[in-house]
Specification:
About 55% of the residues are buried. By secondary structure, this protein is α/β, with parallel strands linked by helices. The model has no long low-confidence stretch (mean pLDDT about 95). The strands form two sheets. Strands 3-4-5-6-7-8 form a six-stranded mixed β-sheet, with helices on both faces. It has a five-stranded parallel β-sheet with strand order 2-1-9-10-11, sandwiched between helices. The termini are close together. The chain has two domains: about 1-40 and about 290-385, Rossmann fold (3-Layer(aba) Sandwich); about 50-280, Glycerate kinase, domain 2 (Alpha-Beta Complex), CATH 3.90.1510.10. It has helices at about 15-30, 50-55, 95, 115-125, 145-155, 160-170, 185-190, 215-220, 225-245, 260-270, 280-285, 290-295, 315-325, 340-345, 360-365, 370-385; strands at about 1-5, 35-40, 60-65, 70-80, 85-90, 130-135, 195-200, 275-280, 300-305, 330-335, 350-355. About 40% of the residues lie in helices and about 20% in strands. The radius of gyration is 21 Å and the shape is globular.
Length: about 400
């Protein structure tokens, strides 16, 4: 039996390659004769650069930037050359403002900034790349990409960068009350990057504002109270209104799918003229997943929490969609499964198996994530690869 093992990262515990190895380890305990094809993936969040650098020839360049609380951290730019010699730089927002940069207890979505991502983008431009693809997702920021714009203006030495830093780099709540005049130097920034192609490879299609916006849907998981989430939404509304007015751009940018991805980083990139591509689709295409599935009997995917977000273009649903096209069944193994069988079947997932159900099991899986995931994979293999 040939099995493709194609998980996303298990956020906070296992990278995608580590998760793939754990799933394979458990599977082999029951079915050592099966042919396993390990294919770690990303939806634009954690592991985006790693997944692409394994599949595409290019060079990796480390860059020291600041994290969401201002501490130094390391980002990596992956530069590739196309057939016409045009350079493309891939980078990952989670490396500059990700959920794993600092303890969960110290997260402050009111003040976390995407400033370091702006420096990372600036370094990517300095490589000579004219196409900049930013993996957007897995961040602790909720600043609409404001900090990123200030960081990029600083990196490119744009006139008025200091003014943007003062107004945009202090986190989401600091954006309250902004006016177009405050953001006038943004015109200098957009002029500086004219001629470059930006792509926001987003992990979700969430919009920026409102009841279905990023603050309402995702600020809680970053540590915000309901009151703070509402404050952040109002502050982002002020920032968005001021930014589009300063640049003469349409207000509809806030309603574009993906504008709220990455705490609103999608919107910040849209201000620079970025197009959007679902991150999972970009990565699955780069690694040739369709062809690998066509030669398989089964695909095993997974992520930390299999929830409603998983059904909206993330790795699990992207894998299942491609598998359906070649009539290969999809099963998912996740830290927790928080959606029902009907919802899973609607995106093509045959069955889903949680690693942990009870609080005690969750604590055990956090203490030994690879071991618990491998044990669950072994039990799944008994169902899907019965011994003859």
């Amino acid at each position: 039996m040939r099995v493709v093992i194609a998980p996303d990262s298990f956020s906070g515990t296992l990278s995608a390659p580590a998760a793939a190895e754990a799933l394979a380890d458990g599977w082999r305990r029951h079915a050592p004769g099966d042919d396993l094809d390990l294919c770690p993936l990303s939806d634009g969040g954690q592991g985006f650069v790693d997944a692409l650098s394994v599949a595409i020839e290019g060079r990796l360049t480390p860059v020291e930037v600041t994290g969401p609380a201002g501490d130094p951290t390391l980002g990596v730019i992956f530069v590739t050359s196309g057939e016409n010699g045009r350079l493309t730089a891939y980078l990952e927002s989670a490396q500059a403002c990700g959920a794993d940069l600092g303890p969960a207890s110290g997260r402050d979505p009111a003040r976390a900034t995407s400033f370091g991502l702006g420096h990372l983008i600036g370094a990517a431009i300095e490589t000579g790349a004219t196409r900049i693809v930013v993996g957007v997702g897995g961040v602790v920021t909720n600043d609409g990409g404001a900090g990123m714009l200030a960081g990029l203006a600083t990196a490119l030495r744009v006139p008025g960068a200091d003014q943007l830093v003062a107004r945009l780099a202090a986190g989401g709540t600091a954006l309250k009350g902004l006016t177009a005049a405050d953001l006038a130097p943004l015109t200098q920034l957009t002029a500086r990057v004219q001629g470059l192609e930006f792509v926001a490879a987003t992990d979700s299609d969430v919009v920026l504002l409102g009841f279905k916006g990023v603050s309402a849907l995702h600020a809680k998981e970053k540590g915000a109270s309901p009151e703070l989430a509402q404050e952040l939404d109002l502050a982002l509304a002020d920032f968005a209104r001021a930014a589009v007015d300063a640049l003469g751009q349409p207000q509809k940018l806030v309603a574009l799918p993906g504008s709220g991805a990455g705490g609103g980083l999608g919107f910040g990139l849209f201000l620079l003229g970025a197009g959007r591509e679902p991150g999972a689709a970009l990565v699955t295409a780069a690694v040739g997943l369709s062809d690998r599935l066509a030669a398989a009997d089964l695909v095993v995917t997974g992520e930390g929490n299999l929830d409603w977000q998983s059904l909206r273009g993330k790795v699990v649903s992207a894998v299942a969609r491609l598998a359906q096209e070649v009539a290969v069944p999809t099963v998912a193994v996740a830290g927790q499964v928080l959606v029902g069988r009907r919802e899973l079947l609607s995106v093509g997932v045959e069955s889903a198996y949680p690693v942990a159900r009870t609080p005690a099991e969750i604590a055990e899986s956090l203490a030994d994530p690879a071991g618990r995931l491998a044990a669950r994979a072994e039990r799944v293999a008994r169902t899907w690869s019965p011994r003859r």
